[in-house]
Specification:
21% of the residues lie in helices and 29% in strands. It contains six helices and 15 strands. The strands form three sheets. Strands 5, 6, 7, 8, 11, 12, 13, 14 and 15 form a nine-stranded mixed beta sheet that branches. A four-stranded antiparallel beta sheet has the order 2-1-3-4, with no helix packed on it. Strands 9-10 form a two-stranded antiparallel sheet. Helix 1 crosses helix 2.
Length: 234
């Protein structure tokens, strides 16, 4: 088994993040530092990360969280901010968030020990749609909305076409449903910034057909078997 897949099976993170552990020289096999991603782990090998032995997890954990504002999607934070793991009280396993929601955003977040599933959800080639509710101040004209739908330039690269629907305009606020198939940093917020509109509320409500429901802010539950199967096949 390739080293990045092995580490993902140990519940350290997604395969892509596990690759960084290898490249940074944090991984040893039988006491020897390895930095080649093509390295295979064979039966009987002892694998360590930061000199701590790791083993594949036999039964993975899958959690749906309704992330509130004021938490970062990370296992730890060098600035001492609260992380989404601080909300999970009854799991001792090494779980990690799949993808991210920024500090000021809320909504559907999956946490798991399954690195393969995390890789499937977050890898750009799979183009799994993510649905958000975004509120901005003031009205937004059709020309600006069509500009966002057709793609804008972020970091020198055009975003993929997306779906944007105005849900209501009330009390000077426009509420939109936004569906994107990419996961660029703060993408929805930056899209609206490109048309000089600030997102004052942002909530992810769905990943593919998996919808956030029945959870108050900060609450979580284990995913149902059919939800897990869906994510593995989507």
């Amino acid at each position: 088994m390739r080293i990045n897949k092995y580490l993902a099976e140990c519940g350290l993170s997604s395969r892509r993040k596990c690759e960084l552990f290898v490249k940074d020289g944090r991984v040893k096999i039988n006491g020897k530092i390895i930095t080649e991603l093509s390295t295979d782990v064979r039966d009987g090998d002892i694998v360590t990360v930061d000199d701590n032995k790791v083993n594949p997890i036999k039964k993975h954990i899958y959690i749906m969280l309704n992330k509130p504002k004021g938490y970062i999607c990370s296992s730890s934070d060098e600035h001492g901010r609260k992380t989404v793991l601080d909300l999970i009280k009854d799991h001792d396993e090494r779980i990690f968030p799949v993808g991210r929601l920024d500090y000021d955003s809320e909504g559907l977040l999956i946490l798991t020990t399954d690195g393969d599933l995390a890789n499937r959800i977050t890898h750009p080639r799979n183009e799994i749609p993510k649905t958000y509710i975004a509120k901005v101040e003031g009205a937004v004209d059709d020309e600006a909305i069509n500009k966002l739908r057709n793609g804008i330039i972020l970091d020198g690269e055009k975003t993929k076409k997306c779906r944007i629907k105005l849900l209501e305009f009330k009390n000077g606020m426009s509420r939109f449903e936004v569906v994107i198939s990419e996961g660029r940093n703060r993408q929805v917020r930056r899209m609206f910034e490109s048309i000089n509109k600030e997102v004052v509320f942002l909530k992810r409500v769905a990943i593919g057909d998996l919808k956030l429901s029945g959870l108050n802010r900060g609450e979580y539950r284990d995913l149902y078997p059919e939800e897990i199967n869906y994510l593995k096949l989507v």
